[in-house]
TrEMBL record:
Residues 192-283 form the Peptidase M20 dimerisation domain. It comes from the Bacteria. This is Amidohydrolase. InterPro entries: Amidohydrolase, Bact_exopeptidase_dim_dom, Peptidase_M20, Peptidase_M20_dimer. NCBIfam families: amidohydrolases. Pfam families: M20_dimer, Peptidase_M20. PANTHER family: METALLOPEPTIDASE, PUTATIVE (AFU_ORTHOLOGUE AFUA_6G09600)-RELATED, PEPTIDASE M20 FAMILY MEMBER.
């Protein structure tokens, strides 16, 4: 029996797991109920060694080994977002202000499905080696140390002997039975900047007697937005967005300072460095306007780099499962993904799994109405399992 057919036998269980997780979402580093439930489900399976709390208190590492051979990792994230759900489904979030609006509940259910299939295949000797199932917390947010879940697991040695890592992400802009696969850089470096412009401030009726940080910022902003359109090659991917401006507290007082915060997104290390340099150059005009400034850039998760050979394994697995599946070769956009930390350290790849509901309107990631076509789960499980097994065999694709 094929892997796909094996998964079809417990499709209802996959959906049940996902809906249960969806009803009780938890924020980054707070996935205590989620990890306990994952542990309970895994403990009912055979041939699995389970570790909890490696790197972070809520991580779960499940290992299935058939002896000497390569070690391959399959990873899913478990955390939710601070969003009030507005789907009105029977399985809507029961935790006010918290929602699985990025599909991590589905990722977790799919990885549980992979664990079930792999544990059932142990005695068939379908592969030789070790497959690690990594249930990772905190993909969406960083803690006070500026770290999300992946760096903690890397520091704890979870990936030390791993030769290849696979992951998937739900894709609500593609239909079930469709995939996005992309070689090389596929999601963005995500950095943040924060700047403060200092001036003298003064009376609103006598602006000529003071220096005005708001006026200075009004001249800085066109230069900031012009970095992408005039300083970065059109073929390169880069975005600078301002998300917050703060200044003043009265209508008749010119404030003494103005602050601004935003994000910088890019694909390649070279453009990442260039954008930071250009940002510093733009703010230098503040000096010629009679002010001072302080600018800090905080580097966040690195761009996701998809290993081309591992992508070939994914494509091979897709063709083996169902030949009519539509595979789109395109990058995933300017969103961030902390699996990028893993792809910096070892060969890794992530594919996007189509899951759009056929309703005629969008249920995008990170929105209160996000939801998915659960019939996509079987394909997701099958691709992960087939890809992991192929990689353990070190077959040339």
């Amino acid at each position: 029996m094929s892997v796909y057919c094996k998964v079809l036998e417990f499709e209802d269980q996959l959906i049940e797991w996902r809906r249960e997780l969806h009803q009780f979402p938890e924020l980054s580093f707070e996935e205590f109920r989620t990890s306990e439930r994952v542990m309970e489900i895994l403990q009912a399976m055979e041939h699995i060694n389970i570790e909890k709390g490696v790197g972070t208190p809520t991580s779960i590492i499940a290992t299935i080994s058939t002896g000497e051979g390569p070690t391959v990792a399959l990873r899913a994230d478990m955390d939710a977002l601070p969003i009030q759900e507005q789907t009105n489904t029977p399985y809507e979030s029961q935790n006010p202000g918290v929602m699985h609006a990025c599909g991590h509940d589905a990722h977790t259910a799919i990885l549980l499905g992979a664990a079930k299939v792999l544990s059932d295949l142990v005695e068939t000797e379908s592969w030789k080696g070790t497959i690690k199932l990594i249930f990772q917390p905190a993909e969406e947010a960083q803690d006070e140390h500026g770290l999300s879940g992946s760096p903690y697991l890397l520091q704890a040695g979870v990936y030390d002997k791993v030769e290849a890592a696979f992951a998937l992400h739900m894709c609500p802009w593609k239909k079930s039975g469709q995939l996005l696969i992309n070689d090389g850089f596929s999601m963005a470096n995500v950095d943040e900047f924060e700047a403060t412009i200092y001036a003298t401030g003064g009376h609103g009726g006598y602006p000529e007697k003071s220096t005005d940080p708001i006026w200075m910022l009004s001249l800085v902003l066109p230069g900031l937005y012009g970095i992408i359109s005039r300083r970065i090659a059109a073929a390169e991917k880069g975005v600078i967005s301002v998300g917050e401006i703060r200044s003043g507290n009265a209508t008749n007082i010119i404030p003494a300072k103005t602050s601004i915060r935003g994000t910088i997104r890019s694909y390649t290390p070279a453009i990442r460095d260039q954008l930071e340099r250009e940002l510093h150059q733009v703010f230098q005009m503040v000096h010629s306007l009679g002010g001072e400034y302080q600018l800090n850039v905080s580097r966040g998760e690195p761009a996701l780099y998809n290993d081309p050979y591992l992508n070939q394994i994914v494509r091979h697995s897709v063709r083996k499962i169902q030949k009519h599946i539509d595979v789109f070769e395109e990058a995933f956009g300017m969103g961030g993904e902390d699996f990028g930390y893993v792809s910096q350290k070892l060969p890794a790849t992530m594919f996007f799994l189509g899951c759009a509901l056929d309703e005629g309107y969008s249920r995008d990631l990170h929105t209160p109405v996000f939801d998915i076509d659960e019939s996509s789960f079987v394909l997701g499980v099958a691709i992960l399992v087939e890809s992991a097994i192929v990689r353990t065999k070190q077959t040339i694709i």
